[in-house]
Structure formats: structure tokens, C-alpha cells
Amino acid sequence: MNGIDFENGKVTIDTDGNFHTTGTVTAKKYTVDTSDPLSASVGEATIPAGKTEIEINTSAVTNKSQIFTSPDEALDFSIGVIKKNPGKSFTAKIIKSLPDPIKFSWWIVN
Questions:
Q1: How far apart are CA 24 and CA 20, in angstroms?
Q2: What gap in Å lies between CA 69 and CA 56, rounded to an integer?
Q3: Which numeric CATH code is attached to 35-109?
Q4: Phi/psi of residue 37, each to 5°?
Q5: Which tens digit of pLDDT belongs to each residue from 90-103?
Q6: How far apart are alpha carbons 101 and 46 in whole angstroms?
Q7: Could you report how far apart the first and last alpha carbons of the chain are, in Å?
Q8: 107: exposed, middle or buried (C-beta count within 10 Å: 0-12, 13-18, 19+)?
Q9: Neighbour count for residue 108 (Cβ, 10 Å)
Q10: For the chain, what is the HEC assignment?
């Protein structure tokens, strides 16, 4: 069985359900399946009080991943990604430890 092809390859859906387009995808909402946390491309994490980094386990990360972080509170510094371990994890870091934990959201785009 073959996948589905529209407009001579401009839009295709393969037999695994992967959607491909040569154009732009526009949507009102984008939902990511997070039912398997070990392969999720979006999630939440917390840097513990007194610590400066955390390793987040997910097989979604690659060498080419762009990983975006967004803290749940205002900070005077960013949460950076200092290490990518393809297929396994990435490490997020802050420049100084704080007395309270820092909760943040993350999103991987490949």
C-alpha cells in the first residue's frame, strides 16, 4: 500500500501517517502528543532550588534540534540549552542558582 499524494507531491501522507508539504501549514491550534514523555518534543521541567542545570530525557532531540525554553516566571536571565545528546536528552542551564525552583516549558523543533 502506498501513501497519499496530492498535487504531484506538494502534499503527501505516507503509510506511517507522516504529513509532508512543500508549502506553509496554517492552523489555529497545534497539539503535540505527549502520551510518551520519553519521546515528547514538548514538555515542562524544573531546575531545583540551589542548582543551575537539569537534564531532560527525550528521544526527540537531534544534533540539529532547535530547543526553545520559556520560564513560568520573570527572570533577569535566560534558560539556555548547553548540551544535546541525540536520541536521549538535552541539558538546560541558568547562569546562577536561585533559592527557589525554576519551572519552565520547553519545545523541540527539528
A1: 10
A2: 12
A3: 2.60.40
A4: -60, -25
A5: 999 999 999 999 99
A6: 6
A7: 28
A8: middle
A9: 21
A10: CCCEEECCCCEEECCCCCEEECCCCCCCCCCCCCCCHHHCCEEEEEECCCCCEEEEECCCCCCCCEEEEEECCCCCCCCEEEEEECCCEEEEECCCCCCCCEEEEEEEEC
In the numeric block, the cell 530525557 is attached to: 57
Instruction: Tell me the sheet residues that pair with 13.
Output: 4, 19
What residue type is assigned to position 83 of the chain? K
Question: Which cell goes with 66?
Answer: 532547535
pLDDT digits (tens, 9 = 90+) for 33-90: 888 989 999 999 999 999 999 999 999 999 999 999 999 999 999 999 999 999 999 9
Domain range summary for the chain, segments of one domain joined by +? 1-30, 35-109
Check the CA dihedral 101-70-42-31 and report its sign. positive
